Structure formats: structure tokens, C-alpha cells
Amino acid sequence: QVHLVESGGGLVQPGGSLRLSCAASGFTFSTFLMTWYRQVPGKEREFVASISSTGASTTYADSVKGRFTISRDNAKSTLYIQMNSLKLEDTAVYYCSTGLSWGQGTQVTVSS
């Protein structure tokens, strides 16, 4: 069974930072492109960033470019996203995904 577990969310002030992790199991993590998404109540799920299987290529939504960095450690089957200079509009539940499988999400709340 594919299993994805996000962690690292929490409450931060605007301008603060968080690092989210996604622990993967049940599949060959190193062969999959991985993606971070986020969603707020009443809104569609939004693409945040993706990273190729080797980590050689990354893609970011315009809204997070220059602030977020996606990375992965294939030896640990773990996906990360470093989120800096957080804004109120970054508040959401953040999910990692293979495209077919999803984790339960971790809540990020940016508030003063």
C-alpha cells in the first residue's frame, strides 16, 4: 500500500519559515515525480511545487517562487519543502502526492 505522511506544519507568523516533510513508503519512491499541493476550505487544490525523480528538475507555482524550495532524499524516501517568508495567503493544508496517491496533509497557518 502506498503510504504518504506529511508532517511539520504549524502556526507561524508572517515572514516566518517552516519545513514540511513527506515520508513515503509502499512504492519505489526514487522513480516517482513528487508534488506538493495545498488547499484551503472552499477552494480548489493548488499546485505548489514538484520535483523530478532524481531531484534534478524542480517546478514552482509563481506564487511561491523565490520563497519555497522543494527537495527530496531518495535514500530516506522523503520529500521536503522549505517555506520561507511565509505570507497569510500561504495558510492551507499541504499535501504531498505521487499524482495517484495522497497523504492526509499537514496544516500550515500563517497568522500574526
Features:
mainly beta, four-stranded antiparallel sheet, globular, six-stranded mixed sheet, 10 strands, 112 residues
Shape: globular
Order of helices and strands: EEEEEEEEEE
Terminal-residue CA separation: 40 Å
Spans of 5+ residues with little confidence (pLDDT < 50)?
none
What class would the helix/strand composition place it in? Answer: mainly beta
The number of helical segments is: 0
Strand portion, in percent?
over 45%
CA radius of gyration: 13 Å
Mean pLDDT, to the nearest integer, reads 97
> Main beta sheet: strand number and arrangement?
6 strands, mixed
Strand order of the largest sheet: 2-10-9-4-5-6
What is the strand tally?
A: 10
The level of helicity is: under 10%
Walk me through this protein's architecture.
- The protein is an all-beta fold.
- Helices cover 0% and strands 48% of the residues.
- The chain has no helices and 10 strands.
- Strand 9 and strand 10 form a beta hairpin.
- The chain is globular and about 40 Å long.
